[in-house]
Specification:
By secondary structure, the chain is of the alpha/beta class. It contains 16 helices and twelve strands. The structure holds glutamic acid (GLU).
């Protein structure tokens, strides 16, 4: 086993061993077929943004997706109709209530959010039938693309919920009675039962969560399942509403967007980091898998995964703040030294985003660019510039140039250029020495 495989698999295995004996909780039995699940089943899976798969225990055991389908069908509705249209019919406020509560807004009848049953039934109803692709086929296809393989329906579980799902039907009737909906939630509730009965494994759920974490692109197949902004919208609603009446406590203690389901599935997503899933059918009173909750919470604690816990790595971005005369290889001579003294130099490394770009520009000011003289920005060791960082650095250098100051970059890979731009607007060199030499040669002094 390789180093990474060993480290991550060991962490999952250790949690599996640690919590396999936790046997409090109950099997869901209001859908009779779910009460037949093996109470000892317990699987964990993690999929990275590179599509690396890790698992422990029963990660390949099939079960029905139930409410873990909700964020993905919401994603489909958002992709087809957009946030404004979807929000007219289903809100995005935490209800603080149980999954099957009559969570409807006073006056309009709009469900609180798409993670509770009322809102999920509306989200399902919003997916229109298309020629050759009825609503359920579109949903099944979407769930399959999130998982990265063709999924199917557990007909026994479907029949079991269809035979006993009067509360959800009643909810659908109530919703229909409250407003001028563009679709029929009563007709859609049967599709909702089918969507809940789609069969998955913990590894499938980890892939689905990883796809949301990866901006809507499945990291196993490379398939763009939903647009990036939709993935972010869904993660936001999972963060505030995904755990029903335990959502606030979960965000506080675990700090990851998540969704639970009554068959014992539980997903959590670390944006741009990983998708995580657990399966274990014994549930706590909020309808969340007991072992799944314990395992994911402990993993988040141990690996520092809480979203709000992002210690800034000071100094990791900026590697040098100086003036050119302090650099090695300064040619002898007072005049030359004085010229180079007027050249501010800052160097950066790694992937630059908004936060990093702010640090780089601040460093350039600290180096002296905030006062007089020329400025050199060394991007030789920068591995990526996102569009925001590029615009900020270009803007910062342009402001110096507008003050009549000489500016140059060491940018051998042309990262500061806009895509498609041939010669940059900033004077660019392949090395810091060349950039400094150009600035110093022409600096007054
Ligand atoms: N099919 C279930 C229901 O609608 C899903 C509930 C859940 O997983 O929380 O009652």
């Amino acid at each position: 086993m390789s180093a990474a495989t060993g480290a991550v698999t060991d962490a999952l295995r250790e949690l599996h061993t640690r919590y396999a004996g936790a046997d409090e909780g109950e099997l869901a039995d209001y859908i009779p077929e779910l009460a037949l699940a093996d109470p000892g089943a317990f699987g964990l899976a993690l999929i990275s943004m590179d599509g690396h798969r890790y698992s422990a225990g029963d990660a390949g055991v099939p079960f029905t997706v139930q409410s873990v389908s909700k964020p993905f069908v919401y994603a489909l509705a958002l992709s087809l109709l957009g946030l404004d249209e979807v929000s007219r019919w289903v809100n995005a406020e935490p209800s603080g209530e149980a999954f099957n509560a009559i969570s409807l807004e006073r006056g309009t009848g709009r469900p609180a959010n798409a993670m509770v049953n009322a809102g999920a039934i509306v989200a399902t109803a919003l997916v229109p039938d298309a020629p050759g692709a009825p609503r359920f086929e579109r949903i099944l296809d979407c769930l399959s693309r999130f998982a990265g393989r063709k999924l199917d329906v557990d007909e026994e579980v479907y029949a079991s919920e269809a035979a006993t799902g009067d509360r959800n039907r009643a909810l659908a009737h109530l919703i229909r009675s409250t407003g001028p909906l563009p679709m029929d939630p009563v007709a859609a509730v049967e599709t909702y039962f089918r969507q809940c009965a789609v069969r998955v494994t913990a590894l499938d759920l980890a892939a689905m969560a990883a796809t949301l974490a990866h901006g809507g692109v499945n990291p196993l197949t490379g398939d763009r399942v939903v647009p990036e902004h939709v993935a972010a919208q869904v993660l936001a609603v999972m963060a505030t509403c995904g755990m029903y009446d335990a959502s606030g406590d979960w965000l506080l203690r675990v700090g990851l967007p998540a969704k639970s389901g009554v068959s014992g599935g539980l997903i959590a997503a670390g944006p741009a980091r990983f998708g995580l899933a657990a399966y274990s059918p014994l549930l706590d009173p909020t309808g969340t898998s007991v072992r799944g909750r314990l395992a994911i919470r402990t993993l988040s604690d141990r690996l520092g995964l809480h979203l709000m816990h992002n210690p800034a790595l000071a100094g990791a971005t900026v590697t040098l703040v100086t003036t050119a005369d302090e650099l090695p290889a300064v040619p002898a001579g007072e005049r030359e030294r004085a010229r180079r003294e007027r050249v501010a130099v800052a160097a950066a490394q790694g992937a630059l985003d908004f936060t990093a770009a702010e640090r780089v520009l601040y460093a350039l000011d600290e180096a002296g660019a905030g006062r007089t003289g020329a400025a050199v920005l060394d991007l030789v060791r920068v591995t990526d510039l996102d569009t925001v960082a590029r615009a900020m650095l270009r803007g910062g250098l342009a402001r110096l140039a507008a003050d009549g100051r000489r500016t140059a970059v060491a940018d051998p890979d042309g990262r500061l250029r806009e895509p498609g731009e041939k010669t940059g607007t900033v004077r660019s060199f392949t090395s810091r020495d060349e950039a400094v030499a150009w600035c110093a040669a022409t600096a007054s002094g």
